[in-house]
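Task: complex structure prediction.
Instruction: return structure tokens for all chains below.
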Amino acid sequence: MSRLKVSGVNKIFGNGATKVQALSNINLNVAENELAVIVGPSGCGKSTLLNIVAGLEQATNGLVRMNGVEITNPGADRGMVFQSYTLFPWLTVQKNVEFGLKIKGISKKERQGISQRYIELVGLKGFEDALPKTLSGGMKQRVAIARVLANKPEMLLMDEPFGALDAQTRVVMQEQLLRVWEKEQTTILFITHDIDEAVLLADNIYVMSRRPGCIKEKIKVDIPRPRDHRVTVSPRFSEIKKEIMEMLWEESQAAAMQR
Amino acid sequence: MLRERAAIAKQFNKHRRLALFSFIIIASLWSLFSYGKLVGELFLPTPGAVVVAINEMYNEGILFEYTLASLYRVTVGWLMAVIVSIPLGILIATSKNAEALFGPSIEFARYLPVVALVPLTVLYFGIGDMQKFVIIFLGTFFQLVLMVSDVVANVSRDLMRAAATLGASKWQQYRLVLLPASLPGIMDSLRITIGWAWTYLVVAELVAANSGLGYMILKAQRFLATDRIFAGLIIIGILGLLTDYFFKWMTKVVVPWSEKAGGKS
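Output:
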């Protein structure tokens, strides 16, 4: 059963002479517990697509449905992790993780139990009372993931969450995300321009074209799980990576010619 | 941890010594020029003469009376500006309609030199405290509104969006995210504008008043009592320094989580 269904979504910014079509006829289905990754060149509108799914932006036309219900507004059922650090700097790690729970009106005692569980899940036990300004970039993103998961969303939306981290930290975070996802049995829509990241994480990869962005291809990643960084040197990994690289290469070349 | 704290303390002491050093230099130069008779006493009184002047003012009973009168005017006039400008600034930053409504007239008013408004305020409000409040209000309010709305407008949009995807309503995004996120910047704006408030107060007191430090300076000028003028200036400087320390301390108390509050806890 598909959890998220995007049908015929178009997005046009502005009007008249300044009109820009960002997305063109996007169709995709994300199944329950699937880890779907959208990969595409910068400026292809992949973040716009994610924002539409989050309800932070509206599609010009087309339909986005979550469990069959049309999405119009942002909501706690679609928690988002951003590339920029979005922890609330005035709240401790624990209070950050409890932010959504508090809004839902969950009792303090219950909140504590839930936040404790997710802080441990992302490996930050002992940092409950730390303020964000004392955390490293990787730790901040782990708290952001815990904060979203604690809310028990139907789906996790991730917009290049590891894009601002250094290469080593990024690999550690990718592996940790895989462990968390296996344990939590949650549905994820993940956006990146990093092909390695896409192949390592995904069940299915949607390759997007340059602007106006459309889904060029859906690639099923049949590398067995559980995966870790070692699969990145396997022959199958290289095959899939090469396939995507060639597709994106065509796109970036065509985009360069256009300018 | 302890070693780190010791290092911070050491650094702090070093900076304190440097600050003290700069004051010593100024005092030495002052002493050199005045005691050395390089400049006439009419233009530059000796530090000793200024201390004597301060003591005289104390004996006359005006030292604290005038200082308190000035302090009271600054505080009330500035608080009036703060109370109105913070909500208005937030409103302008968050509502396009409010910006269209208030923005242009505030920009216009901001460029009116407050000094030129003193005659009008005397005409309207006389030379009492109310006139001082109004001058300080006019001098700080329009700037403060724009500073606050800038601070609020610069809060990261992703912070609000993150809150939205965690289930926060629009109102909750404003109350639980926008407001606290703006606090460090607002504290900064307050610290800067209270300095301006002092300037406008002295301007107002120089033109028309019957008490206050500005009034005292003006009266001293009539009698060529340069030592009193210096005394007045030094008192204003010290009050400014204390105000600044107070705001830095307040920043640590109100927004300890801010990068501006300094020091990892």
